Amino acid sequence: MSRSTTVVIIGGGQAGLAMSRCLTDRAVDHVVIERGRVAERWRSERWRSLRLLTPNWMSRLPEWQYRGDDPDGFMTMPEVIGFLEAYARSFDAPLYEQTEVVSLDHDGRRFVVETTGECWHADRVVVATGPFHEASRPAFAEWLAPDIAEIAPNRYRSPDELDEGGVLIVGASASGVQLADELAKSGRHVTLAVGRHTRLPRRYRGLDIHWWLDQLGTLDVRLDEVTDIAAARREPSLQLAGDSTGRSLDLERLQDADVRLVGRLRGIDGHRVDFRRDLTANCGAADQRLERMLQRVDAHVEEAGLSAEVGPIERPPPVRPHRAPSRLDLRGEGITSVLWATGYRRSYAWLRLPVLDAAGDIRHDGGVTAFPGLYVLGLPFLRRRKSTFLDGVGRDAEELADHMVNGLATTALTASSHRQGEGR
To answer: How does pLDDT run across 330-385, given as a tens digit for each residue?
Structure first.
């Protein structure tokens, strides 16, 4: 069956729902197509103990925000799902759940969106499937011995589900350090391969670090305010965990918990793994970036006259890594699992339009692609640094919705002029 609408939104997570709300407010006919249920990745691709990295007061979407009694807390996975479900109900989002997109094409006049349920024809399409499609791992991972289990963060649920034995975690951004902490607490022997990372304390001078980032405008930095947007989009996630007690989670704390730190993974040959001798350099670079950020906070405190209202200056101690081996024998070390916390890549196998770059990502300028009428939303640094946050995707959606409405109005005006001309 074929159906028609003005806009099709692909994806029913935070980005898709934010755009749906914006189009609803602008009286634009649309549908939201979701392969599973609202917030499906939170339901099926997150570990059980995960919490948001941002405090609840930063959970803000168009015409919607956190309304609970713990603004300084951090939502659990079920709470995030409930938050987004309630958001969808609040404006009766036109959702088509359990409906997968098979192909997206254009027939010369309109977009054609084939799904497992029906075919939609639309004037505009918004791809809002998020940045976390397929877990990424290095090419040399294929040389890992077959008796070593491989796990990606989107398939990990809890320590109990892993094989008995030690764990090598590759990657020390947010996911890597959180999983290292959880596995170490469960009694596992954990080795963490550390590459480039961003270290920040959970709280500084008595306030959550995100409060300071919000005050400094760091997360509001826009696309046209950075000199190298490609590098900005590759920035690692903050080395944080959602913990309202103020507990920081960094490499020094993990090392104190007997997590063994090693350098960046360089190669694999069966049970033998090799690491670069860059652990000290990676930790030192992260500490330097940390110091620069905290100096900015201190300067802001002085300029705003807040010294009497916030806590004293207390720097986190620098990370002093122990001597790290450059090679390990996994079997000899009793390591039975490798967990790849090495990020994600996008996958658009259903996309039939010429908008992908060599890496398979959608080419765009602030969410506007070169193919007229096709938009993308919810990707890292789409329009501002916080584009993937619950507190950032909404502003991107509002701006793209305005761009879309202006385009639709221009198209309608042009079509009307043609009709009038033909009637003369």
So the answer is: 999 999 999 999 988 899 999 999 999 999 999 999 999 999 999 999 999 999 99
Short-list 313, 407, 338, CA closest to 368? 407
pLDDT digits (tens, 9 = 90+) for 380-408: 999 999 999 999 999 999 999 999 999 88
Tokens matching residue 89: 């109900």
Any bridge partners for residue 269, and if so which? 272
pTM value is 0.93
